[in-house]
Design a protein that fits this description.
The complex is a heterodimer.
Chain A (H helix, E strand, L loop, with lengths): L28 H6 L14 E7 L5 E7 L1 H5 L3 E6 H7 L19 E2 L5 E7 L2 H8 L3 E6 L6 H5 L14 E9 L2 H6 L3 E9 L11 E7 L4 E6 L4 H12 L6 E5 L12 H13 L5 E4 L2 H7 L7 E9 L5 E13 L8 H4 L13 E10 L13 H19 L3 H8 L8 E2 L5 E2 L4 H12 L1 H13 L3 E13 L18 E7 L5 E5 L8 H13 L6 E5 L16 H28 L6 E4 L2 E4 L6 E3 H10 L13 E6 L18 E13 L6 E11 L6 H21 L30 E4 L17 H18 L8 E2 L3 H12 L1
Parallel strand pairs in A: 1-12, 8-29, 10-11, 14-15, 20-21, 27-28
Antiparallel strand pairs in A: 1-5, 2-4, 2-6, 3-5, 7-15, 8-13, 9-10, 9-12, 13-14, 16-17, 18-26, 19-20, 19-25, 22-23, 23-24, 26-27
Chain B lengths: L3 E8 L2 E8 L4 H8 L18 E4 L2 E4 L12 E3 L14 H8 L9 H14 L5 H7 L11 H13 L1
Parallel strand pairs in B: 1-5
Antiparallel strand pairs in B: 1-2, 3-4, 3-5
Helix pairs in contact in B: 2-5
Classes of the chains: A alpha+beta, B alpha+beta.
């Protein structure tokens, strides 16, 4: 049976939506502000042990010997895990491409500082850490591959000995006649860029409590899991258990942003539990573990890129040569981060041909993991910087060169050279609105005055497309299989008319439980507090993935609307029987099943549910007494990629333009953000305050990436940023309070017309800030091409200019 | 290492007498010995402020102190904010909900503790004073805008 999902809030069975599209308070919040929400470190099980992990101090070394005898003898210690156990019980991590994963603990050599070499389960974390000090490890150090450039050299040490080199992936995509457009260009604007490692750093690190049932050979993992089903499948592969014997329970987590990590910690805690005869084992990663070896490092890239430009400023081609430092293997799916830009390779622009050459290299830095945006933030920084450079050399205003090249409203749905289809948009309206809000003309006048006084004041304008609602096919180019990302929910109405929505993902911060309640309450005409959201662990949840790739708001809406629609269909049949008419004459409106065109002939949905559950004598023959439904949604129209990776991948294309005014301090190189304006178009805003929260939060992370955050490594691949004193997260003093506006171009393809909106700001903020700094520095004749544009880097550039 | 010492503390108005290992942090004592899990641990090295609590009215890191150091102190944690008789949330908690001053909520108890200290000393703070007061609290989700709004709203109600 095909289910029609409402494409706009107006199609909901309510006279006027009371909750969808409104700034409702979040149902998640009372527990969070009261401190009662069960984050993983607030959870314990009887007899639970505590894990601590001994980690490698070397970036590359052979593990000659591990002696844990003394640790095992320490009172309170119940299990010690070493590489020997791992070899016996475990498999290396699965990766895309295949063959670039290691065991969760080193078995013969370590590939990065912080790689686990042994672990202990003891009566407390304190005792477990005491025990680590008693473990003796003998290392034989090996030459280090400090970065991707070194890793490419013919005489470089090879990290994964089953491969001939450190190159994980080497491929060139060509989309359209790129040689021709470059040959015919009036200008070719070329530049090199360096994006240094930064990453997620949610305020809560990873944690888990794992229990191996040694009698039944079942495993239960409680933890701060962003994608519980995916984690379960991974553990099945790594721990040699059938997937249906692993139950993953996701607890509310203190942020994730893709970079929560977890597989290694889960495998280690699980095997410690197995070794401790089935006692549950808790592992709570500490911040130094997170910063050196958790899932929080991303995007370590060297770019050489160019655009082909006509004399009038029309951009016709875009070439990107990317060298990507994946760190010690591909366990964290950092490879996907280079595939994702295919979903919006050419940004907002009508660029007709493109080329993408990729080299992904294994090094002795920590493995890279996803981070919010999953690849486009550096890519957009490159494209937008080139657009500015073109504007400067052609003497076109930076806003106008973008306008000139935008995809026009009548061109949607629009297929970009790298294959994805953008659903809808009105980029010029977004630009006009933000320029108006910023009073751009006046801003330029003020800038000119400031420059006349010798001040380094600059303006940035950057426009991006945010691909929303990811699909696995977007990552096929690096070996990820599959098309479609099912997300399922169950909606149940009880005998009193109270409603429960069962979902397969936990709280993470985006307000998705609130969204679920908003939609159900409007669909069935009840108050929000009549709807409860229940979390289901992987053993009982419908097919699900959870948050990621700006998908969950749209996917969850689709799943809920599908389930509600299925219940409505059942209610139509039951109510028609009770009211003695034909089902096609019944309709649902404002919580009532009513006979069309007969005022007063109606019954509340609670009565229909009650009849189904308590009056089987009144039901039509054969009617299942079940006022609930499960619906699993996946994006429609996705297809298999062609030989150049082209396919319809991400379902939605949100758009934003940011305008920022900065001042660079000539003496210190410090960048002060003076004004910041955003206009964003993510289609229908289902909960506007949540959308604004996502935007502002993304700006904060973008400010960090642009100006402060960097995982610095020494020449022997020692991490130098292992505390928050070295890895600088922006505080309230660094993050600008942005002025926000909106344009609403609903998606024609999605439930309620909404688009993915969780990553748009971090797609844009680093680009616009660096563009503004470059505008400020342009009188000096120097430009920033490396992130973060830290005071030190900018100061050095200024010195260089003054010599 | 495992030397124990007896301490007496008052937490959220309740007196506790406990024998604790001298090396146990105050955060661990509150969370794991007293079962007050609302104080969250984000970095354990004094930067993030998620573990802020009030010790004798001052917002302080509970990860940077040992439990034995607070012998005799009056402590307030997030669990002590709600009115237990009426069940109502504290105005600061309510303000954070109404102004969407949280997303994942992990850092929120620490922010609220800094807010309480601020408003205790300065009932009508300027934006600069608010920023100064929460300058030692990190939030990775919200971008701080709605936290500022929340504190402004709380100031009108506390």
């Amino acid at each position: 049976m095909a289910i029609e999902i409402p494409k706009s809030p107006e199609e909901l069975p309510t006279t006027s939506p009371r909750f969808v599209g409104k700034n409702v308070n979040r149902i998640e919040d009372p527990g969070l502000v009261a401190g009662t929400t069960e984050f993983i470190d607030n959870f314990s099980l009887p007899g639970m042990l505590h894990c601590a992990i001994l980690r490698s101090p070397h970036a590359h070394a052979r593990v000659v010997k591990v002696n844990a005898d003394a640790a095992a003898q320490l009172p309170g210690v119940e299990a010690v895990l070493t590489g020997e156990d791992i070899k016996r019980w475990c498999n290396p991590a699965t990766t895309s491409p295949e063959g670039w994963g290691t065991y969760p603990m080193a078995v013969d050599k370590v590939l990065f500082v912080g790689e686990p070499v042994a672990a202990v389960a003891a009566s407390s974390r304190y005792v477990a850490e005491d025990a680590l000090e008693l473990i003796e490890v003998e290392y034989e150090t090996l030459p280090v591959v400090k970065d991707a450039r070194e890793g490419l050299k013919p005489d470089s040490p090879v990290l994964f000995e089953q491969h001939e080199s450190n190159v994980i992936h080497d491929r060139t995509h060509i989309w359209g006649d790129v040689d021709k457009v470059f040959a015919e260009a009036d200008h070719v604007i070329q530049e090199k860029f360096r994006w240094n490692r930064c990453g997620a750093n949610p305020m809560e690190t990873f944690g888990c409590v794992c229990q191996w049932d040694v009698i039944q050979d079942n495993l239960t993992c409680h933890g701060s899991y962003q994608t519980p089903g995916f984690i379960g499948l991974g553990r099945s592969a790594s721990l040699n258990l059938p997937s249906n014997k692993i139950k993953v329970v996701s607890h509310p987590h203190g942020g994730s942003f893709g970079g929560k990590g977890g597989p290694r910690g889960t495998d280690i805690a699980s095997l410690l539990s197995r070794k401790a005869n089935g006692k549950p084992v808790k592992y709570i990663e500490d911040r130094m573990e997170y910063l050196t070896a958790g899932g929080g490092q991303s995007w370590d890239r060297y770019y050489d890129a160019s655009i082909a430009v006509k004399a009038d400023g029309t951009v016709t081609g875009f070439k990107v040569d990317l060298l990507d430092d994946q760190g010690a293997g591909a366990e964290g799916y950092g490879t996907i981060s280079v595939a994702k830009p295919l979903a919006a390779f050419t940004g907002c622009y009508r660029i007709e041909a493109a080329k993408y050459s990729l080299k992904l290299v294994a090094t002795n830095r920590a493995p890279t993991y996803p981070y919010r945006g999953y690849g486009p933030p550096p890519h957009n920084f490159v494209l937008e910087s080139l657009m500015d450079k073109a504007a400067r050399s052609l003497q076109i205003d930076v806003a106008e060169i973008r306008r000139l090249n935008y995809i026009r409203p009548d061109q949607f749905p629009y297929t970009i050279p790298s294959g994805n289809e953008y659903d809808s948009g009105n980029y010029e309206a977004v630009l006009d609105k933000v320029l108006d809000m910023a009073d751009y003309k006046k801003m330029r006048e003020e800038q000119a005055k400031a420059q006349a006084e010798g001040r380094l004041v600059g303006i940035g304008v950057a426009s991006t497309v945010e691909p929303g609602v990811f699909d696995w096919n977007a990552y096929a180019t690096v070996g990820v299989p599959g098309v479609g990302v099912p997300e399922g929910v169950k909606v149940s109405i009880d005998i009193l008319g109270n409603i429960t929505v069962t979902v397969g993902f936990s709280l993470e911060g985006q307000g998705q439980y609130t969204l679920a309640v908003q939609i159900v309450a409007d669909y069935f005409g009840v108050e929000m507090d009549a709807v409860r959201v229940a979390y289901a662990a992987t053993d009982v949840a419908p097919p699900h993935f959870g948050p990621g790739g700006s998908r969950l708001g749209v996917a969850l809406s689709g799943a809920i609307l599908g389930a509600c629609k299925k219940i409505e269909e059942k209610f139509r049949i039951v109510a028609a029987g009770l009211m003695q008419c034909e089902p096609e004459h019944m309709e649902l409106m404002d919580g009532l099943m009513r006979i069309k065109g007969v005022p007063g002939a109606e019954m509340p949905i609670a009565a229909v549910a009650g009849a189904m559950l308590a009056r089987s004598d009144l039901l039509p023959p054969g009617m299942e007494p079940c006022p609930e439904a499960t619906y699993v949604w996946t994006a429609p129209g996705r297809n298999e990629p062609d030989d150049q990776g082209r396919c319809k991948s991400y379902l939605t294309a949100a758009n934003a333009t940011h305008v920022v005014l900065v001042e660079v301090d000539r003496d210190t190189g410090f960048t002060d953000i003076l004004q910041y304006f955003i206009v964003d178009d993510c289609g229908t805003r289902l909960n506007p305050s949540t959308v604004e929260g996502q935007l502002q939060g993304g700006v904060a992370q973008g400010v960090g990436a642009a100006l402060y955050e960097e995982y610095v490594y020494s020449d022997d691949a020692q991490p130098l940023a292992s505390t928050f004193m070295d890895y600088l997260l922006p505080t309230v003093s660094e993050v600008p309070i942005t002025e926000k506006g909106e344009v609403v171009t609903p998606s024609p393809f999605t439930p309620l017309g909404a688009k993915g909106c969780g990553e748009g700001a971090i797609h844009t903020t680093p680009a616009v800030i660096v563009c503004a700094i470059n505008d400020a520095l342009s009188p000096l004749g120097v430009q920033v091409r490396e992130t973060p544009a830290s005071p030190n880097r900018v100061w050095n550039l200024i010195q260089q200019a003054q010599q | 290492m495992a030397t124990k010492q007896e301490i007496s503390v008052t937490v959220n108005g309740v007196s506790y007498q406990r024998e604790v290992e001298v090396r146990m942090t105050l955060a661990d004592f509150l969370r794991h010995e007293l079962g007050l899990g609302g104080t969250h641990v984000g970095c354990e090295h004094g930067i993030c402020g998620a573990c802020n609590i009030l010790i004798d009215g001052k917002a302080m890191r509970s990860c940077l102190q040992l439990a034995v150091q607070v012998d005799g102190a009056q402590i307030t944690t997030v669990e002590g904010l709600r009115n237990l008789e009426t069940g109502e949330l504290h105005p600061v908690q309510q303000a954070f909900i109404e102004e969407h001053g949280l997303q994942c909520g992990f850092c929120t108890p620490g922010f609220m503790m800094s807010t309480l200290e601020l408003l205790g000393e300065n009932p009508n703070p300027s934006d600069e004073e608010i920023k100064h007061a929460i300058g030692g609290n990190l939030c990775r989700c919200t971008g701080y805008e709605n936290i500022l709004r929340s504190i402004r709203l709380a100031a009108t109600r506390v």
